[in-house]
Amino acid sequence: MRALSQKVREIRLSQTLAFTMKARSLKEAGIDVVSLTAGEPDFATPPVIKDAAVRAIAADFTHYTPNQGTRELLLAIIKKFEAENGLYFSPEQILVSSGAKHAVYNALQAICDPGDEVLLFSPHWVSYPDMIRLADGVPVTVPTSMEEDFRPNADRLREAITPRSKAVILNSPSNPTGVVFTREELGAVAAVARRHDLYIISDEIYEKVLFDACIHHSIGADKRVQDQVITVNGMSKAYAMTGWRIGYMGGPVAVIEEAAKVQSQVTSNANSVAQMAALAALSSPVPEVELMRREFEHRRDAAMDILSSIREIEVVRPQGAMYLFFGVRNFYGATVRSSMDMALYLLERHHVGVVPGSAFGDDGCLRISFTCAMEDLTRGVERIKRGLEELLLERTNANV
Ligand SMILES: Cc1ncc(COP(=O)(O)O)c(C=O)c1O
After folding, report:
1. Does pTM surpass 0.85?
2. Domain finish residue from 283, 311, 341
3. Residue 215 burial by Cβ neighbours in a 10 Å radius (0-12, 13-18, 19+)
């Protein structure tokens, strides 16, 4: 058989999915595994949203819609952006896609020429580098560190810029670190992007999952860069709608036109019934959003309490999103030498599924999600604690 595409062969299967599948296959083999891998709210989609979808099916709203999305949904998104983010768009500046992931992909396809560099702070969401590669771009990571609480540093961003730099991706609240960028941090990034004429893709999918009274800011509201910013959002996380696959972006007309062209040739419009569900979510009160947020905050606190009681662990308290990203480098030794080894060790020996930090660009860390019931979460985190303490004990025994 002739060789398949070199470009696609170099893309990796998402490590989050890979470890979710590994944990699932152990479960299917009858082992009591607690999986803390998936970034998917465990709540049901709120009734007001499901009802709208049922009505859409009954009314035969089951055909193609305009490629960009239905007029009603575009208008609801415009209203949402104005009311919640201080962003002002006309309908030709919005594109509805099959998830925020699809929106980021379309935006990158619209922006990148072969060899264009796209900057991103690391640790970063698993999918960005491969999506950049699929657009023939080159991912350039700008490290943040646990010692600095994973805060973004605009000076380091500036230092990474070359004549090929074309765009920067921001993700606040961040998956995996839970960092929420302050207005000042966004301002400093905006100044660099303005000076070097970079597009900014701002992935704000976790904007409603905030803790400790943290506030979300949209960089697109900064007048200096408003013509360079593509703001991405979606229904998956805030509304527990991961399976419905609705995301969207707002940005400069030229970018949206090109991204819409890509979409028109690949998938066409996002699912018609799911668009009606998204319309209901954006235009009705959905009290469940706040209830889910509160529950995520309780879970974060419970997981933090257990993790921070482990000797030699490093943890930064997440300010948002649904993840805890913690440092386990101090436990590396003869048996476990990397985050991949550690994730395998915890899964196989202690029956808890986690994602190795290497998937996010930091091999000293692991990520867990708090998207399962409190009881499972605490059971899973206790297993991590046991696993890590066992490694410390092994090391002590080896030294005596
Ligand atoms: C940072 C980030 N962006 C986008 C997505 C994907 O969202 P969607 O389900 O809308 O495609 C995820 C999902 O994990 C994510 O973590």
Report:
1. yes
2. 283
3. exposed
